[in-house]
Amino acid sequence: MGSVRKNYNKSFQQVQDRFTSEAGKLFETEHHGRECTNAIFIRVLFCALCHIQSLFAVCRNLQRCPDDRTVAAAILKTLPTYTELQKRINETLAEGLPRNLRRGKQRLAIDLVLIPYHGQPAYHENEIYRSQPKSGTSHFHAYATCCIIKKGFRYTVALTPVTKGEEMKEVLRRLLKQCKDIGINCGLLLVDRGFYSVNVISYLKHAQIPFLMPVVIRGKKATKNSPAGGTRKYASWKTSGFDKYEMTTIKNKKTVKTWFYVGVYCKNLRSRCPKCGGKRARKPFTFAYYGVRVERARWMFETYRKRFGIETSYRQMHECRIRTSTRKPILRLLYFALAMLMRNCWIWFERVCITENGRRKQTRDDYFSFRDLLLRLYNSLNHQLATST
């Protein structure tokens, strides 16, 4: 016998209505064109988002749809300024959050996502973020997001673009301020090793924000006459333990120092080390933390693993991000924000329609992946556009 899946047609319509309502708040004015209105180009954007296509491909494939130039012109005429769009995006992300996320302190994860860019800046060189080569380029449009790390409630709650040469301390400060403005208090901040610096750690300590991040292994290697220096000494630990480390850097010809606690968790790997006579290899995982009480080193390892929920949000974002070759930063920011809004709608769909606030275990028949939802929504919207006037 085949599996019997429940009928979620009403829920799919609710997801569509929810996204349409949230996306409509990003536009400043109404476009009263004969061929294209706000309702029409929002549907076209949603179709492009659900099928991972460009506006040109969607307008070509959909029946009774305006051409891509008409849709793009209508979008640009109704968008606010770049700064105002950022404000509207964060307000829209905050409006869809459950009330219980604003109570107490939450665990937050902050990370940077890089979208490869093959082209020249539209207005200023600072638009393009430079990093290590990826996908055949070292030029990117960079965005930082903040995600709640809670089972069943992994919403993206704040978003900000990152420009060339911008310090990570300012990016963190901006995101944490946005979270505070919407009533979300940080109980523990989980950040990537890209934020491992004196400026970031000093700011988090001064702001009294508990944090947990991996330690970047640096320093001289061990020799016969001298031990390893810097944080490289933790890479040779064979047993878990704790330490206190002082980090130093030079900024504007001045020495800047800060300190933090270090926890090392040594985990047995499945592979065996031939150098150790066939014994199981042990790998040390080194973490920097402050403002949180840690009794067991394994707690840091298990807690930091939950941070990869934000990496999942980026993977799902790429599953619905509208493809484009435009040089306009405001359109690229809009497409990125729409993908994050769609993912939040999927979290809402899972929490409300599939599970009971994320507590009930999903069955095989009830499971809906993000791609399943996007395909079902695309078919529904295609039918609506074909039958509309």
- Beta-strand percentage range: 15-25%
How many domains make up the coordinates? 2
Number of H- or I-type helical stretches:
11
Morphology call: elongated
Largest sheet: 9 strands, mixed
Provide mean pLDDT, rounded. 85
Instruction: Find the count of extended strands (DSSP E, 2+ residues).
Output: 9
Radius of gyration: 24 Å
Query: H/E series, N to C?
Result: HHHHHEEEEHEHEEEEHHHH
Low-confidence stretches: 1-5
Decide which structural class fits the backbone: alpha+beta
CATH class of the largest domain: Alpha Beta
Distance between the termini: 42 Å
As for the CATH topology of the largest domain, it is: Transposase Inhibitor Protein From Tn5, Chain A, domain 1
Helix fraction, binned, reads 25-40%
Judging by the overall fold, what is the CATH architecture of the largest domain? Alpha-Beta Complex
